[in-house]
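Minutes, project check-in
Item: structure for the 456-residue chain
Input as provided by the requester:
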Amino acid sequence: MIPGRLPAPPYDRSAVTAGVVHIGVGGFHRAHQALFHDRLLERGESDWGLCGMGVLDADRRMQDALDAQDGLYTLVEKHANGDWDARVIGAIVAHRFAPTDRDAAIEALTVDTTRIVSLTITEGGYDLDGAPTAAYELVTEALRRRRDRGTVPFTVMSCDNLEGNGHRARHAFTTFAGREDAELGAWIEEHVAFPSSMVDRITPATTDEDRREIEERFGVDDRWPVVCEPFIQWVLEDSFCAGRPPYEKVGVQVVDDVEPYELMKLRLLNASHQALAYFGHLCGYELVHDAAQDPLFRRLLLGYMEEEATPTLPPVPGVDLAEYRHTLIERFSNPGVRDTIARLAADSSDRIPKWLLPVIRRQLEDGGEIRRSAAVVASWARYAEGVDEQGEPIDVVDRLASRLTELARDPDPDAFIRDRELFGGLAEDERFAASYREARASLRERGARATLASLA
């Protein structure tokens, strides 16, 4: 399968055991965690293959693609100079589709060879009142069976872009289990490990053009290849209850405290993506690198990172933050990746509150600069109106899309930021509200480019 001109994985996949079940197999997982596990298998760590698991009906496409190719796929790293590095990943040795075979999915989690269950269920997946509960139902039932059979519980490892993702996962799973069975919730709280992690690799959606060029360059007919940037980072808390692979031998930073790294990434990279998203769309950009190469955007991003985000960060061991900031600009500017503004602008209501608003709150507490952060919030509100500067419709992709548009179009200039679910009491801080109003008025009266120029 996937012969072409690329070498097959150099290990015997039939001898690999799936020691990790990953829920939420998508492009990011296949560009990130699966690559590290592929490296482990190359080192002979055959107990640490991956079993993918789809829990939503929308996951059927991935199931079909992996089944058709025996779990193999092509991973392509696109460099700024136009070079492509490609390899065939074989780490996913099994896949379960829970909607059609729930018991088989639960048993894949329950079997004693499964020692880690990892997750990419999106930032909104940890909100028990709004997220689909399929992953929670499967995992808690598997933990119930392991407890009843006397099997050691697995580690639950979140790989989502959330501050304290391990703590959030612990709270979500113990709360969900405790609602139905208080004793099970208490057992999970006591016995299951939930390490925090920071994950980083820009992975745009695969396009038909990517598929065609992969076939032309490498002779590979791949239903669902993955494309990504060359940069990759994984910082992982060393907290496991059923053993772990030697991640540190394949490039993972295994540490005692992930928080400094995750705050760095969330507040510098992820929040900067939000700065690019709405201003970028309003300025007519469709691709991230085009916006990031625009001097107005570079000034916005560096100004935000240097003057607003960085002052909120603790020291980050082994990281030069000035170098990291400039590296981010170069990563965003990579024309090979062809990441889209639309991808960055999706699901804003799950992202802005977790990535950008903590910066604003901390800066307000410390008397720091917030002009650019407030302008990003204003650009989100302007975007959420659903009509661009040329009168063309904007497709607002968000679970709260209709509510956001209604608030953004409200004649009250503060209606958008008065949504307490999203902003808490931020609208009551006059310094933030005034900066937001100024930027919002500028966006409506003068447009996005003039507003960006005024922030320089």
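Outcome recorded: The radius of gyration is 22 Å.
No further action items on this chain.
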